[in-house]
Amino acid sequence: METMKTSRVTLLLLAVALMLSSCLEDLSIHGNGRLATEDRWVAPFNKVKVTGEYNVFIVPGDEYTVEVTAESNLLGHIVTDRDGDKLKIRTRGINNLHHTIPIEIYITTPHLNQVSLSGPGLIQTENFTTNKFEVFLSGSGLIESNVDTNELEANLSGSGEIRLSGFCKHSDLLISGSGKIQSYGMEQESCHATISGSGDILVNASDWIEARISGSGDLLFINWPEISSNISGSGKVINDN
């Protein structure tokens, strides 16, 4: 009797799983292969948050503009709206977009203080000047930022990569995933670097670097800064000159 009850429960669970799978498939939207471009009106913003597999390119400009290029039947499911001082880019509802052509979003803004990416997408920023700049990445994506700033913060909690170039007086770089923060192209005077995962941080600093490592990742540096370190993991501080 107990075996029959167990079998019924198993069959019921399988039926529910099949129904859920069918529902999720119904929410999948496949691109039609016909490329289209749409200009979006947006209110002023100085931060950009991207959730999903979008390629986002941000450059300085006198006006706030957003141009979305995607397959025509997907455009209506790509949301670009403002929340406070932040422009959010995401997929409408819980739809799953299957594109055959990469979705590209081109943005201009006079000011940019922060970018964040969650997912396997791409964010590229070029030639911004600001007092403080923040970069947040969670997932397998890529963020490439060129910026001139007094204070830089970069936080990576996934398997992706953050690539930094330009100049900053001081940086705070933190990695808790398996990815990489590559900042050899970013001239820094000083840097606090924290590693609690298996990822690596690469730093170009002229004055000093303070490293805290509690994971298996390494801190690699170029230039000739003073080094102080606190290591409780298997990671190392490596002179890469």
From TrEMBL:
Putative auto-transporter adhesin head GIN domain ranges (all copies): 44-222
Protein name: Putative auto-transporter adhesin, head GIN domain
